[in-house]
């Protein structure tokens, strides 16, 4: 499988971002309010200049989720035992440690790089190829790093908020980082034959969507605004290693909510 196919993998995997946990937007009116957004060093504000278009794409994505992705995820949770579901999630998350390690190095984060390398080693060797997350028990918590965060670390602005068909919430910087991660970093699908590679890909997407079902009850108010604010806050949190500025959830009355799957 070539790197173009690798990019396709990254695109399809990111279907999990469609959901925002899947409810229809409550309003078609543009609010154009400033929201917190990821930045290279400090929190900044950003408008949603394409909100009218973004809302239409958001509704399309939710329709796809309602009729295709979520039913598949519900069926998956019904059929697959809980321990097996956790094992599948652990396996795919373990593969992401290679990306975490390389981007930690690019961001000059030595401790994060050591943790990523340790997690991959412990989980692969002692966790049955990553099916069991033994690294967390060794006090090595996951520290996600992607190329979008790397670009932010070196000062590249995020650009305007975008809602993309199938890809879901994004910004130009995050989209560039996602494409780079998909093209550059090794993937187990590179070594699989058809149709096995596609079975594995569908399994990863459905498993991640299933993990979001339990978070659906957190949506409140205008779901478009909620998902936008959750996404932007999460990206800011990741880029700045937890040093956030203005909290958009305080404006929405959801102070304690964090959608980690963003």
From TrEMBL:
Species this chain originates from: Marinobacter daqiaonensis
Biased composition (Polar residues): 32-44
Domain of life of the native organism: Bacteria
GO terms under biological process: intermembrane phospholipid transfer
Signal peptide location: 1-24
Protein's name in the database: Phospholipid-binding lipoprotein MlaA
InterPro entries: MlaA
One Pfam short name: MlaA
Signal in keyword set: yes
Signal is among the record's keywords: yes
UniProt family annotation: Belongs to the MlaA family.
Gene Ontology terms: cellular component: membrane
Residue segments, region Disordered: 24-44
Swiss-Prot/TrEMBL keywords: Lipoprotein, Signal
């Amino acid at each position: 499988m070539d790197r173009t196919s690798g990019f396709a993998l990254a695109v399809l995997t990111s279907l999990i971002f469609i959901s925002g946990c899947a409810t229809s937007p409550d309003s078609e009116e543009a609010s154009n309010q400033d929201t917190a957004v990821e930045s290279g060093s400090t929190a900044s504000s950003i408008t949603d200049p394409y909100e009218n278009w973004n809302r239409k794409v958001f509704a399309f994505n939710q329709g796809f989720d309602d009729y295709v992705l979520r039913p598949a995820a519900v069926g998956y949770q019904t059929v697959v035992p809980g321990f097996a579901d956790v094992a599948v999630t652990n396996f795919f998350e373990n593969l992401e440690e290679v990306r975490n390690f390389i981007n930690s190095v690019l961001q000059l984060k030595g401790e994060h790089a050591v943790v990523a390398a340790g997690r991959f080693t412990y989980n692969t060797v002692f966790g049955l190829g990553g099916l069991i997350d033994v690294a967390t028990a060794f006090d090595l918590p996951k520290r996600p790093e992607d190329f979008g965060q790397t670009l932010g670390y070196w000062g590249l602005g995020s650009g305007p908020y975008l809602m993309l068909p199938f890809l879901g919430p994004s910004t130009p910087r995050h989209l560039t980082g996602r494409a780079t991660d998909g093209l550059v970093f090794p993937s187990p699908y590179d070594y699989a034959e058809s149709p096995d590679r596609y079975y594995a890909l569908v399994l990863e997407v459905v498993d991640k969507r299933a993990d979001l079902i339990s978070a659906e009850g957190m949506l409140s108010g205008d779901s478009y605004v909620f998902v936008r604010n959750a996404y932007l806050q999460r990206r800011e949190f990741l880029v700045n290693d937890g040093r956030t500025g203005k909290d958009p959830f305080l404006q929405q009355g959801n102070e304690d909510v964090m959608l980690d799957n963003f």
